[in-house]
Amino acid sequence: MMIHDILAQLTQVVALGKINKNTPLPADMLGQDGASELAFRALEQGITPQAILNDGLLPGMSIIGEKFSRGEAFIANMLISAQAMNAAMEHLKPYFASGEIKSTGTLVLGTVQGDLHDIGKNLVKMILKGDGWEVIDLGTNVSSEAFLNAISSHSDAIVGLSALLTTTMLNMGEVTETLKKHNPETRVYIGGAPVSQSFCQEIGADGYFRDPHSFAKSLRLD
Amino acid sequence: MMIHDILAQLTQVVALGKINKNTPLPADMLGQDGASELAFRALEQGITPQAILNDGLLPGMSIIGEKFSRGEAFIANMLISAQAMNAAMEHLKPYFASGEIKSTGTLVLGTVQGDLHDIGKNLVKMILKGDGWEVIDLGTNVSSEAFLNAISSHSDAIVGLSALLTTTMLNMGEVTETLKKHNPETRVYIGGAPVSQSFCQEIGADGYFRDPHSFAKSLRLD
Amino acid sequence: MKTYKSLSISNPDELVFGISPHTVSCGNGLVIGAGQVFPEINFTLPTLLINEANWQSVISHYHEICEAVIKRSTVLQVPGLVIEFEQLPDMSMNPEWGAEITCLIKQHLDELYAATGIPNALRVTVVDLRDTDQPPLLRTGESCAKTLEAFRLSAQAGADILSIESVGGKEVHDQALLYADLTGIIGSLGILAYRDVGWLWGQITAIADEYKIIAGGDTACGFSNTAMQLAGQGMLPSSLAALDRAASAPRSLAAFEHGAVGPSKDCAYEGPIIKAIAGVPISMEGRSSCCAHFSPLGNIAGAAADLWSNESVQNINLLSGSAPEAFMELLAYDCRLFNTASKSNPLAFRNLMVDSDLPYSPEALILEPKTVIHIASEIVKQTGGYLQTKAAVQAAYEAILSAQNNGRVQIKTAEKVWLDSVALSLSAVPDKEGDALEYLLATYGSFFTPAAYGL
Amino acid sequence: MKTYKSLSISNPDELVFGISPHTVSCGNGLVIGAGQVFPEINFTLPTLLINEANWQSVISHYHEICEAVIKRSTVLQVPGLVIEFEQLPDMSMNPEWGAEITCLIKQHLDELYAATGIPNALRVTVVDLRDTDQPPLLRTGESCAKTLEAFRLSAQAGADILSIESVGGKEVHDQALLYADLTGIIGSLGILAYRDVGWLWGQITAIADEYKIIAGGDTACGFSNTAMQLAGQGMLPSSLAALDRAASAPRSLAAFEHGAVGPSKDCAYEGPIIKAIAGVPISMEGRSSCCAHFSPLGNIAGAAADLWSNESVQNINLLSGSAPEAFMELLAYDCRLFNTASKSNPLAFRNLMVDSDLPYSPEALILEPKTVIHIASEIVKQTGGYLQTKAAVQAAYEAILSAQNNGRVQIKTAEKVWLDSVALSLSAVPDKEGDALEYLLATYGSFFTPAAYGL
Ligand code: B12
Ligand code: B12
User: Residues C385-417, buried b or exposed e (16+ Cβ, 10 A)?
Assistant: First the structure.
């Protein structure tokens, strides 16, 4: 039952945000192994990278995600768990490159033209990364062309658009149109305070989500 | 200058709401001639009915209308002036029938289906009557068919629709469509608290007015 | 039938928000009038046709609204919550539709109670369909049957409190109001509306009793709020709207004579007069209902409130969130003010609200506690709706005159002439109900049928 | 540069709405802080692209809004009025556009003054475009030039008061906030933001002086209101948002050190601390801004307000009228409460507002007059933004701890653990500004350039 043990441990350290041996938090785990050490050891033991990701790391993110949803944890906890996960991922990276395991997918993300609000967008990035997505963050004030360029070099990526202004949200329509014209298969998701489900339908986007968690959840089910 | 005199007097009694000799208001005109007597006398003097209407009665309504707009008079004053005007019109009626003078036009008016609010609509009726319009009031909760029937027998009439509910206002679209399908020339005007200029454009109606005065004014300019 | 021959509250300083002599217990553990003011949140659909094709969308709107307002109430830890579901015409015409939504909202409230223990109740207001016919039949015919069926199905589906904005007498009052005809106003409210409310609430109370729920109260919305709106648009003198408000009290009191127990309905600004007489808790709305209508009563309306409402707002998005959620936040904060004041010096806060509006409008004067008690005491001196209504108008008129004379209330120049004429018009109002009825028949006979009023 | 070494208001009972030691005269005869609270109405476009094709429609929206809010102010006889025109990005990027609307609004206000004598003023808030570049250049480059040009053209076009929600330091603060990194928060606000606000307000004051108008004030909206929103969504501990609020005061005070004179900006909830120190009138928003955002500060925000605002609402229709008109009504009634209280017992009403929110949130505690004065007095003991910010956080933390201990303020279970860790984190915050800067460079060096801050 070694396999089960070390994966369970990995899940626990990710959920607790124990990045590596030297990180000071949580205080009562001072000096103990973190996600980095455990992932390295798991590989040594011959556990497949895919199993480490699916049965060790991701369940850890789920635990903290659920705690967060119940109001028992904060975003900082999520971020630190994500860092722990990333530290473990460093060891798995070569296998990603070699194609031995597949990442969940690629998300091209940005705040649309004219709009500089980016905290919401950044949260989407962090939480999707935590779910194993590769996120290409185009930043704020992003034009249709920039989205098009990004998607051209990542043809299987999905796109996430953010807007916080009642004026700039209309630019989501243009981006969606441009992307769909280029490739009708590209899935475009939108979010941000002024946006709504009915607006999403209006502009022909593929989905609206109130927050990153419901977005991530829905992508998991896809 | 007799003609000028009696028409000016008519204007004054209409503005003051002096209906006939026997009406008690205004108190300081007790026993004096009212609109009814003066109109009768004007006809006797050979003044044309058209001149009585245009140069005697309607200017009286304008005066009270302006006072009302400036907040110096109330709807009751307008209504009593309208009664004075109607009393005078009784004497002119035969000439209308004979076609010697033309009434301003015909308005088919109603509150749309599902909606029982009618005070706004009634004000439209009263104020347009005061402007010389013949008003066919279909009441409240009026179906598209009922509007269509009414307009069929008054092909040159314009139509006024009223709605006070965010739900029933949508029925204005159906009525407008039905009427325009039957006769694209039929002009349809809409009003009521939830309605707006942009909604008017959306449903293809010919005009939105915030209140009966602006409606009447605009029709005068037509 | 109960008759009120004396006041439940005769000291103006005891007419205060949050407290009423006869408390009402309802819904999930909610006690109204026992010391706290609770928010009563109201909402309606955005522009949307109600029909079978749109029904799913209608349902999702109500779900979404409930989730939003319940979330906000929980975050702001309201001490209690009333949701009013004010039906739209199609929902009462198809009572199963109204019942389906009633059931949906009730479920949300039950969950709220289970999860947080926040006491709550659901008020369902049925649309009075009885003026579909012109002149209205009121006591017979299909629209009357449908209205009563809507009450029954709502009660079955989970309503805790029943209300209505009833319309009997309005067909005459609408006319009389525009002509500023005081005899017509007093007659339509004091004879016709008074009789209709009494009859109707006999029916509603029977249904409420059967389902062991609360018969809330009625409102003269179609009467004196129309007058207030028209005065606000410059169509009527504000003093006429003020007299009309006073005139509506005996008519709305009739519901309590026939079994209603409160809370009265939010848009019934005649509420304080009713509270003084019947001692029942009342729902009021003021600045908090800026989303639904403007008024000269924004603060003073709160003086005697037991529930505090926003009247209605569409489910559309504001920058903060949905409009119902935004107004839930507003109500919660207003109620915090009320309830914090209750713990220290409620009268000081009440007087602040009163004094802040009083100088600006005769309509506000009618809600001043002293004036309320004066009007209420003149009402209970009389027997029967007609004489009570006449007495209420007379008392209100005297209050306006004296407030004008000692400069406590501004009267606009344009309406001074009209106000001067009121004494004469009032003296012409018949002393006998029979004479007034004759006048109504002679003047407005084409608008109503005596039989509809059991006459 | 002015430095504040003592408090303008040191007695908590003198920190009260409507009165500030240094009044501001501006616009058409308006004097702010001299005893009355005036409404400051805010609005924005509904969903609409701003471009040349839509320009006529944009213009009509602003015309329509002005007509509506001016009508409502007149009807309700407000004692004075401030309109805030908060530009949208395209209007500052194309400063002539912003100027055209400024001019339009000013004309409406001039007409209001001529017609009614109601004193009024126009605040124009320019968009801080300087974070278009990443990392932001702030003091150089095209976006900085455009931002300053937008100020100049607004001043020319008729602005009476200039404001901005400036963003220097935000690029670091955003990161630090999410990680609840106190050294990062204190450093980004106390070193970076503090330096940027000082520099920027030097520029703005020069423009204001040239056009003989008022340099109003700044707001830490992008900092502590973001924290408040995130806490409201459960992303951050509410106590962290409370500490962040205190931390933002020295940064916003820097505007006043460099020539601003108030009224501060509505969404600057750090306003009361500024008022205590600089004695300037402040604009605040609370339950009245439920249309724009939710908050735990609905009532307490009014305690020291000199202007009372709704932050922003789109020009869409509610049942009563347009949303700006509806919120104008709400503000007018709220101001009646303030101003009526001023005539009798302002402290009683102030305390009512304070006490009604205080128990529910550590964020409210920061706005309690006693706590405000405590934080303010700790700030003026220090010299320079960094030490002031550190002191403010320390004082706020102590206030939260003691309020938690004596049960005056609820702390949610979930955040108790976090709050327990604060002492440790605070003790790790460097005593020297230089060390803190090094930390920022080491931790967040990729997000900002020292040169942008003259470092
Ligand atoms: C912080 C803030 C700022 C900061 C921005 C800091 C930053 N780096 O983003 C500053 C001060 C710079 C700022 C500037 C302005 N702002 Co601003 N701002 C805010 C504020 C207070 C909070 C926004 C925020 O960060 N919320 C927290 C985040 C986490 O929430 P969120 O963005 O909604 O994201 C969540 C979800 O929506 C979702 N999400 C977001 N994006 C996406 C994408 C996808 C794909 C998915 C699935 C989900 C998703 O996930 C997130 C987490 O749940 C809001 C007020 C409010 N009520 O929201 C105003 C607000 C958005 N701003 C407003 C305005 C007017 C402005 C300015 C024009 C002001 C001015 N005159 O200068 C400028 C414009 C700048 C520009 N060019 O864009 C208005 C918008 C009004 C309108 N007409 O639409 C608001 C509503 C304030 C108000 N009530 O008036 N602002
Ligand atoms: C009086 C009133 C009633 C009375 C109606 C009396 C009557 N005979 O009309 C009664 C009590 C019966 C009533 C019932 C209901 N009502 Co109602 N009612 C009102 C109230 C208070 C005033 C309306 C009014 O008469 N205003 C005065 C008139 C003069 O104004 P107006 O109608 O807007 O008309 C002016 C202009 O719009 C214009 N105009 C109007 N029509 C036209 C047409 C043309 C061609 C032109 C050019 C101009 C024009 O000219 C007029 C003068 O300037 C409003 C509140 C409000 N804020 O408006 C609610 C209101 C309209 N009612 C409302 C509701 C919900 C209802 C009910 C469903 C309540 C219920 N659950 O029972 C029922 C529905 C009845 C039905 N089947 O239609 C809501 C609507 C909400 C929504 N979703 O849209 C409102 C907004 C109240 C609220 N804030 O919640 N109501």
Answer: bbbbbbbbbbbbbebbbebbeeeebebbebbee
Pick the last residue of a domain from B47, B73, B98.
Answer: B98
* B208 and B143 fall within a common domain: yes
CB-ligand 1 contact for D315 (6 Å cutoff): no
b/e per residue A37-56 (b: at least 16 CB within 10 A): bbbbebbeeebebeebbebb
Output the ligand 2 site: residues, CB below 6 A: B 115-121, 123-124, 160-162, 164-166, 189-194, 209, 211-212, 215; C 44, 86-89, 125, 127-128, 165, 167, 170, 174, 221-222, 225-226, 229-230, 233, 292-293, 311-312; D 319-320
C319 contacts in D (CB within 8 Å)? 44, 291-293, 312-314
For residue D126, tell me if it sits in a domain: yes
Tokens for C162, please give them: 């029943």
C chain contacts of residue D72, beta-carbon cutoff 8 Å = 294
CA distance D217 to D165: 9
Look-up of token digits 């060790």: A56
Domain that holds residue D83: 12-453
Pair B125, B94 in one domain: no
Please answer whether residues D272 and D282 qualify as being in contact, where contact means their C-beta atoms are separated by less than 8 angstroms: yes
**Strands D307-309 and D283-285: what pairing?**
parallel
Structure tokens at A72: 């028992």
With residue A199 as reference, give the H or E element that holds it. Answer: helix A197-203
Angle between the B75-98 and C170-178 helix axes, to the nearest 10 degrees? 90
Overall number of domains in chain D: 1
Q: Tokens 């007379």, residue? A: C394
CA distances from A34 to A29, A52, A56, A61, A83 (A): 9, 14, 13, 15, 11
D209: its two tokens: 């002086």
Rounded to a whole number of angstroms, the distance from the CA of B144 to the nearest CA of chain C is 15
What does the DSSP assignment read for B209-222? Answer: -SSHHHHHHHHHH-
The answer to whether residue C192 is domain-embedded is yes
Helix (H, G, I), strand (E, B) or coil at C93: helix
What are the chain B neighbours of C132 within 8 Å (beta carbons)?
A: 116, 141
Chains interfacing with C (3 or more CB pairs < 8 Å): A, B, D
The pair of structure tokens assigned to C150 is 């809507």
Same domain, B217 and B110: yes
Q: Is D236 on the interface with A (CB under 8 A)?
A: yes
End-to-end, the C-alpha distance of chain C in Å comes to 18
- Tell me the C-alpha distance between B201 and B207, whole Å: 8
CA-nearest residue for atom 80, ligand 2, is B165
Q: Domain check: are A149 and A217 in the same one?
A: yes
Q: What is the pLDDT along chain D (455 residues), one digit of tens a residue?
A: 899 999 999 999 999 999 999 999 999 999 999 999 999 999 999 999 999 999 999 999 999 999 999 999 999 999 999 999 999 999 999 999 999 999 999 999 999 999 999 999 999 999 999 988 889 999 999 999 999 999 999 999 999 999 999 999 999 999 999 999 999 999 999 999 999 999 999 999 999 999 999 999 999 999 999 999 999 999 999 999 999 999 999 999 999 999 999 999 999 999 999 999 999 999 999 999 999 999 999 999 999 999 999 999 999 999 999 999 999 999 999 999 999 999 999 999 999 999 999 999 999 999 999 999 999 999 999 999 999 999 999 999 999 999 999 999 999 988 998 999 899 999 999 999 999 999 999 999 999 999 999 99
Q: The pTM is what? A: 0.94
Task: Assess whether A117 and A87 both reside in one domain.
Answer: no
Strand-pair category, D19-26 with D30-34: antiparallel
- What's the CA gap between C297 and A142, in Å, rounded? 49
- Among residues B98, B131, B151, the one where a domain terminates is B98
Domain region containing A57: 3-98
Q: Which atom of ligand 1 is nearest to the CA of D167?
A: 12
CATH number at residue A210: 3.40.50.280
Strand-pairing partners, residue A160, are: A109, A189
